[in-house]
Automatic annotation (TrEMBL):
GO terms for molecular function: DNA binding; DNA-directed DNA polymerase activity. NCBIfam families: holA. Residues 19-138 form the DNA polymerase III delta N-terminal domain. It comes from Neisseria zalophi. It is an enzyme of class 2 (transferase). This is DNA polymerase III subunit delta. Its EC number is 2.7.7.7.
Amino acid sequence: MPVMRIGELSPDLPLKPLYVIHGEEDLLRIEALDTLRAAAKKQGYLNREVYTADNAFDWNELLQSAGSIGLFADLKLLEVHIPNGKPGKQGGDALQTLAERLPEDTVVIVMLPKLERTQLKAKWFTALAQHGVVLEAKAITGAALPEWIRGRLNALNLNIEHDALALFSDRVEGNLLAAKQEIDKLALLYPAGHLVNLADAEAAVANVARFDVFQLAGAWMSGDSARAGRLLEGLEAGGEEPVLLLWALAEDIRTLIRLTAALKQGQSVQAVRNSLRLWGDKQTLAPQAVKRISINRLIAALQECARIDRMIKGAEDGNAWAEFKHLVMGLAA
C-alpha cells in the first residue's frame, strides 16, 4: 500500500492515477486536496468533476463518468467525497470496481473523514489503498504541535522564541484550523525574518484552544499533570458538563484495572489490545499508566467516580467539578 506523508505533497509532484485522503485533522485533509487540485491544474487536468456521496447518491453515475471520454479527450480530475466514510454495499462495490479499473487520462481523489478500524479493513478501502496513494491526515497532538507551528512560521520566513511558542501552542491546542489562521495573521503583521517574541504572541494570538475528553485521558495517563490541569481549566471554562467526562474517566480506569489483571496473568498488551479497545495512543499510554498507578489506587479512583456521580445526580452534597478535577490531578501525579 503506497503511503505518502501529507507534508510531502507538492503541486510539482507528478500525479498518480488515484489518491485516498482520510484522517481526523480537517485542515490537513483540506490542504492535501487543495495541493492535488493545484497539481492537477498545473499538469493539464483542466476538466474537474466532483461527486458527493450522500444517502441518495447514484454510484452507477460515478462509474459511467469514470468510464466516459470527453469530446476532446481532456485530462480529467475526478473527486469523490464521502462525508460519513460509509459508502454502503453498493458504494463499496463501486469503489472496488473504480480502483481496479482506473480510467486513463484521469486522476481520481477519494476524500474521506477519520475512519474506524473496521472501515480501514473493508474490501473497498483495501482496494483503494492497493491501487492508489494513501494520505492520512493524522492529528497534530499536544507534543507535536509546537514544532508544527514553528515549521509553518519558518515556511513564511518567520521565527519564534521558545516562550512565545509555548504560549502560542497553549492558545491554539486542539484547533489546528485556528492555529493556521493565527500563523497567517502573524505573517501579515510582521516582516520576513522577524523573530516573534512573547509580547508579539500575547498581542496577536487569540485564545482559541479547543479541549476534549480524549486529550484529557492522554494527559493523566501519561502523568503530565501540568497539561491535565490546563485541559481541566479549558473544559470547565468551555461549559463542558462533568457527566460525560466522568463516564469517560471511569471507563478508562476500568480498562486499566482489566489491563493490570491481564498482565499479572502473564498476557501481553498485544493479546488484550482488541478486547480492551487499546487503540491509537492508548496502546502505549495504558501500559505506562498501569506501571505508575497501583491497582489499589485505581480501585479507589473508581469508587471516587461513583461518589462524584452521586453529586452530579444530587444524591450527595459536594462540588462535582472540584472533586473531578482533584481526582484527575491525583491520577496524573
